[in-house]
Amino acid sequence: MRRIHLITICLFLMTALCACGGSTPAETTVPVTAVDSSLRPSTGPSTGSGTVSGTVSGTDLPESAPFTDYAAGLVLDMNSETLKQEVTVKTYVDGDTTHFLVPESVSENGVLKARYLAINTPESTGKIEAYGKTAALFTREKLENAAAILIESDDGKWNPDSNGERMLVWVWYKPAADSAFRNLNLEILQNGLALANSSAQNRYGEACMQALEQARSLKLGLYSGEKDPNFHYGEAHELTLREIRLHPEKYESQKVAFEAVITRQIDGTVYVEEYDPELDLYFGMAVYLGHDLSGEGLAIMSVGNRVRIVGTLQYYEAGESWQVSGLSYRAMRPQDPGNIQKLGEGYAPAYVRTDPQSFVSRKVEVPEEKQAYDYGFLTVDSTLSMEGLLVKDVAFTMSKDLFSGFDGLILSCEKEGASLLLMLSRKALESGSLTAQGEAFKGKCLNIKGLVAPPRDIYHPIKILSLNDIEIVDP
């Protein structure tokens, strides 16, 4: 009898607990499969080419873990006082910044640089941070596959961020033509791919804080305590070429790691470049292969490959330029974070078609630096092309102190008032007299392909690596 009473009590307690669990929150609770786990590898900038290898994974949770899809629960009110505009993507920058094409009534130049409200994703455009690339991939995938994209202001006007160059917006997208809009800002938060950024002080503050708290409690993304599969946890500084070019002294004699496309090779040096979507230009760098690479390591560093490069940044006195050296490849440990790694193949140099006047006079505003840089300074070692350069004079480097250490010809060229210097090394020329070859260029009109050379005094010369990169044309 006592045993029957105990069983009855247990059944009563179990029934009471189930009844308590039946009271659900107002928002919809769905299985944990609503957590995004389908992130795909990037295929590089929208202007690039080639193929990329790699894997990206989402957050794994027990199947029974509850997950509230706040991005689906939030409804876009088309009748509210906020400004709204359907847009298309011009440039993917990172997880919380995208450049959109908009009517001139919204932005005079037809481009709105959007900074997502309420979130701050880890960095992926300067010094790379864990989950930075993962967040950028997440944002890109959602927008690339969207049937429609709409941006919304937080009130009745477009509000700039603290830098004054980007507008603070809510980004909405339709996964399919017949589906409702989803709030991407909120979706990034609920997947644990961003930190709070004044998340409570906005029109959707309550939903933002609930999404953020859920990501923390379910240990998603940044809050999981697990390593980001898209981040290399090694002794090298994980950077972009942009960060290295802007602050080389900060990383001098230190190990750095970055991704880039190999564009040209001259003897034991390769040149690499990487597109920066925010500034809409290519950053470049010289990489010295050294004597320690062989076989598979050298194959990885072939022209046309996209590569993760790990090496030491140093100032090369003889060339008066920065370069990366000290590369290594351990064939028995291909995933070693200290290794160079092949990420893709089939890429071509950008050879950005450049107007000579713009090349010598253009200033580029870098938002985080709050200053403008010469275009030529930022693009050193990247590829470019120019047309219609008239050769006015030819000089030999031995007679020019400005180019001491360089053995070859200097062609002084002009086009529409812009003066440029072309550097042709002796190795780039055919065997024979420098004087005779130099005189052959005088008065000629040239189309060229080359590399932006390190600055020499007030000049940003262009380095020509082969006679095949020069075409003589009619003026």
Keywords:
475 residues; alpha+beta; OB fold (Dihydrolipoamide Acetyltransferase, E2P); 3 domains; 18% helix; 33% strand; disordered N terminus
Largest sheet: 5 strands, mixed, barrel
Strand order of the largest sheet: 14-15-16-18-17
Give me the CATH fold name of the largest domain.
Answer: OB fold (Dihydrolipoamide Acetyltransferase, E2P)
Q: Measure the end-to-end span.
A: 111 Å
Helix content: 10-25%
Structure overview:
- The chain has 475 residues and is α+β, with helices and mostly antiparallel strands.
- It folds into 3 domains: 29-223, OB fold (Dihydrolipoamide Acetyltransferase, E2P) (Beta Barrel); 237-345, Nucleic acid-binding proteins (OB fold (Dihydrolipoamide Acetyltransferase, E2P)), CATH 2.40.50.140; 352-473, Nucleic acid-binding proteins (OB fold (Dihydrolipoamide Acetyltransferase, E2P), Beta Barrel).
- 18% of the residues lie in helices and 33% in strands.
- The protein has 10 helices and 28 strands.
- A 5-stranded mixed β-barrel has the order 14-15-16-18-17.
- Helix 4 packs parallel to helix 5 (205-217).
- The longest helix has 20 residues, at 2-21.
- It is globular, with a radius of gyration of 28 Å.
- It starts with a helix and ends with a strand.
